[in-house]
Design brief:
By secondary structure, the protein is an alpha+beta fold. The protein contains two helices and two strands. It has a domain of 43 residues. It is globular. The model has no long low-confidence stretch (mean pLDDT 80). Bound molecules: zinc ion.
């Protein structure tokens, strides 16, 4: 019954869509969400989020990492 996959979380701060407005973004062919308060981080320091994208755990990763 409780599928957490239906609740989106900010990639940066981890807050859910119930707590903050989330914006859907795409980076490196991966779709994810970021909240409006973390958007400035993405704008000014995108390199800080790159590692977070690489660490995303998806149930269906596009490619296995070697
Ligand atoms: Zn955030």
């Amino acid at each position: 019954m409780s599928s957490t996959n239906l609740i989106n979380n900010c990639i940066n701060c981890g807050r859910s869509e119930h707590q903050v407005p989330l914006v859907n973004i795409t980076f490196a062919e991966q779709k994810t969400w970021i909240c409006t308060q973390c958007l400035p981080t993405l704008v000014h320091e995108p390199q800080r989020l790159v590692n977070k994208f690489k660490n995303i755990d998806t149930s269906n990763p596009p490619e296995p990492q070697v």
